[in-house]
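Objective 1b. Sequence-to-structure analysis of Acetoin utilization protein AcuC.
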Amino acid sequence: MSTTSQRPAPTPAAVVWDPSLLRYRFSAEHPMAPLRLDLTHRLVEAFGLLDAPHVSIIEPPVATDAQLALVHDPDYIAAVRRASEAASDEDAPFGLGTEDCPVFPDLHEASARIAGGTLAAAEAVWSGQVRRAVNFAGGMHHAARAKASGFCIYNDCALAIQRLLDLGAERVVYLDVDAHHGDGTQAIFYDDPRVMTISVHETGISLFPGTGFANEIGGPDAQGTAVNVAVPPRTGDAGFLRAVHAVVPQLLQGFDPDVIVSQHGCDGHHADPLADLRLSVDGQRQLAFDIGDWAEKFADGRWVATGGGGYNPLRVVPRVWTHLTAAVLQTPIPVKAEIPQSWIEHARTLTAEELTGDMSLYEGDESERIPTVMGEDADVWWRSWEVGYDPADPVDQSIMATRRELFPLHGLDPWFD
């Protein structure tokens, strides 16, 4: 008899995908480029993640107006439809037609399809069809109830959360590790004590949307259910992981969620052009696996994961979200794994027109532009909160600000728990 321990078989899981998700394209120059999704899907496929018998594919439906109205104002939905039909930025209300959210002919349907994908993922998880699901095209966390913002039209995360509540979930945790504050999702559930929104992000003092401070703790009837850790610019893996671990598991244990919905924007990477954090691919991979572990420990294994921001579509996004997909599917890819040659060959064919956004991302020789392994040989060690609090450390100052505001509301000691 073999004495070698064997990893438990992965539980049923799903990936939301269809090429129609690539239609969410504001313009040729906009940083929210569908290339991010295409290269991620190609890398997921190249590693054979979708071939495992426990994995199913969810084809994302277009969310109906009635479904979108679970979290969005009907007048706003109608305005998005009208703007799509007119395909013009002129007189477009509700935050539409801006530099961040320009109008394009497929605006409504493309946005509603992303929302429908995360909605379908949530339904599959709650029904027990799968235990975990990922829609890396989702994560549109800036969209508010009646306003487009920050490249986001319909808030798929909020839609999934509301659907879970309607289906019978008593408590849902939304966990956001994007570089930017998850302001839209927080605002939609700010007065709902059944939903805890947790966002760890670069401080709004230096970064859009300028919100997400420690004293934003929820409305009068939901005190303690909005949680924000605003870390300083240039925070790296060690600081960010310390912040997450010093706040999140303690609150998860106390809140006892039925399901976790997470947003994994990878714009906290040191090579992302739109934020000022210093995370690595390895650090963001660690976050995905940590959240998966917490779903098992605190939410009976129920986990709905989404993508989000991330604007280095060649070197960063595909690797981070392939690791995220692998975490959801419980089929981890080592950081030293070589990227399949088929993906590298495809990356070599990309033209300057296809590589939209900040062209400085693609300067240098091929070895600098096109990654060949799944990690960056980064040190993801982080100092546990139990080791002690350094009052001179700006990250620790941010952590303590949040713990002081939130922990007493949950019967926790801000210094020791």
